[in-house]
Structure formats: C-alpha cells, structure tokens
C-alpha cells in the first residue's frame, strides 16, 4: 500500500471515530434505537405516532412527496421545527417506529437496525404498521461495515435482507444496508459490492443507502463518493441513491459553505432520492441550536 493510500485509510478511520463520538453526545436517552445503539423495542410501540390520520397502505411510488431533504433524529419533537418546509419531506431515527409524533408532511421511514433478536422480533409488525400509516420506503442494517454498529459480513446481510426485507418488496421501496465512506476491503463501497455479490440477484433492492463524513472543505471528496456509489448502484441494476447520514466537519462558516455547495448539487442530481444532514438535534454543527431553535445550518437546510 502506498504512503498516500495509507494516509487516506487513516484519515477515513479517524473520521469514523470522530463521527461516533459526536453522535454519542447528540443522542437522546429517551430513544430506543438511537444512532449508535440498538436495544429492546418497548411493548406497545407497534404504531408509529403521526399527527395525521392513518391511511391505507400505499402502492410503491418511486419517490418522495416534496423535497429530498430529511431529518435524522432521536427526539421527534424537534422535527416540528421543520414542519411545512417544502424542501424537507421525510424523517427517520434508526428504528422501526417513530417514537413520537412527526409533522403530517413528513414520511417516517422505518429501519431494521441489525439482525439481533431485539431488532428482528417485531420487525414485521412494526414495518407493516408504518406502511399502513403511509411509509413508502424501508431502510436496512445500519453501518454493517462497522464493528460498533450492525457489524455484519456481506453474506449475513444478504441472507438477512432476503428474510426480512424482501417480503415488503411490493409494498415499499427497499434500501440496501447503509455503508460508510470508510476505505478498505471490508468497508464502505467495497463492503457494498460484496453484499451485491452475496445477494446473487436474490435481494430485491430498490435503492442504495450510504453515509458520508469528512472535512467540510472537501466537497469534491463527497461528490466523488456519491458518484462512485451511484455507479455501483447502476452496475447492480439499482436506479437510485439515499444519503441518510451526511456531515462535513469544520467551523460553522465552513459547514455553511459546504451546504451552500452540495445542497443544490444534490437537489439537481437525478441519481439521489433523499439525503439527511447529521443531525436534527441540538448542538454545534446540528440543525438545532443549543437553545432549542433552528440553527443557522438548519435555516439553510430547511
């Protein structure tokens, strides 16, 4: 391995470590499937709480109603700060249930976090309920390429996808496990390529799901990663891409400039169906300020 590749690998690893430290600080203690955690689903949580009346299960539509931007949250109440924003149309919390009420203009997207019994035991009930309330998309396995997250090899993930995701193919659009932008044979897009190989055409995938963390001054790296993921999706007969965690590290001015560059690029990219800044929570670099109002980043995002 060349010195340059070694440095790139080390930088990718350090960014992943930094990201998980940040997300741990941002997590709410009231959420049962928080980012970076996966614990038991409480009894009585079968129905995602919505502020709108339940409707019959929709047919697959191929896209969102509204803009591409989404809210990655732990505290559902904070999503109301973005109610009725035409550019924001969906939300998720790494769980199969909303764990609170969302504005009626937001589609809640359930996630099967991993393959532990605490995640799978109620998945069919939870996902079916969410679909009956209007969910049109389902996410699978959070960062299986990371040992501290879903931690699955490609074969395990493929078998799990076939067992738990395929049955919903006629009811919702199904996304691959969400992979990081880590570098290495068992990380990121390399892991995702192995997943497609393990599926051998048996996984009924509608979309690729990726996460990106990096420097806010390196928009070209982000755009290249998205383009490479889109190419991998196309190679495997998948026509669309979701970026369900996105964060550029740096000062507020650098993050603002990053968003000013990538938001119109993402909105105009036909390969991208949806994306979410990490995250809709209070704190530096988030969409909500520490005082509980929409931050400068949130104002630009919403």
TrEMBL record:
It comes from the Eukaryota. GO terms for biological process: fungal-type cell wall polysaccharide metabolic process. Keywords: Signal. Residues 1-26 form the signal peptide. It holds the Pfam family Glyco_hydro_cc. Residues 40-66 are annotated as: Disordered. Residues 70-301 form the Asl1-like glycosyl hydrolase catalytic domain. InterPro entries: ASL1, Asl1_glyco_hydro_catalytic, GH. The keyword Signal applies. It comes from Exophiala dermatitidis (Black yeast-like fungus). One of its GO terms (cellular component) is fungal-type cell wall. The lineage of its organism: Eukaryota, Fungi, Dikarya, Ascomycota, Pezizomycotina. This is Asl1-like glycosyl hydrolase catalytic domain-containing protein.
